[in-house]
Amino acid sequence: MTLRTDRQLPTLPSSSYIDGKTLRAQVMLQAKRFHHTVIDVGGRDTGALRAALLCSDIVLIPFQPRAFDTWALADVAAVIDEANGTRETPVLALAVLNCAYPVGSDNADAIEATQEFPKMELLQLTPDRAGIGRRKAISHASATGLHVSEYKPRDDQAISEIDALISMLKHLQNGIASQSK
């Protein structure tokens, strides 16, 4: 957010809670103030991840078409199953292929690996595109505090992929009774 403020760009409310108990309490307290809340807990099994799973409606699991990422899906699925055991309704677990390669069999192999986890739904962003491509515009925009649509030079494919993901998540969210409100 500091990068956005420094550029005099609009900011969004944001907070940082490393402790899982505090994260969950704050999400529950503030949930009524917002239509959508995004919690980024990184890719590790932490108290914050577990707390987020208890108060979230959807969990998005980005994975790259690489062996370590697909192997880690088993650990992620186990943590989600554990969290779902304490919830009234299970969290909707969505996997999305991230940094997909333009050619080769790696993407298909990674997608096939998700089939081992039937409680984890694979997002197909468009009929002809399984996920988000490996795009410099996305990483460069993020590193400078921008959404990919704000980044110059413009990358229409990157914008289209991120917009498709956001649209799909909003559509899915609208069909779920929130756990945090």
UniProtKB/TrEMBL annotation:
CDD domains the UniProt entry points to: ParAB_family
Superkingdom as given in the UniProt entry: Bacteria
Protein name: Partition protein
Biological source species: Caballeronia choica
Taxonomic classification: Bacteria, Pseudomonadati, Pseudomonadota, Betaproteobacteria, Burkholderiales
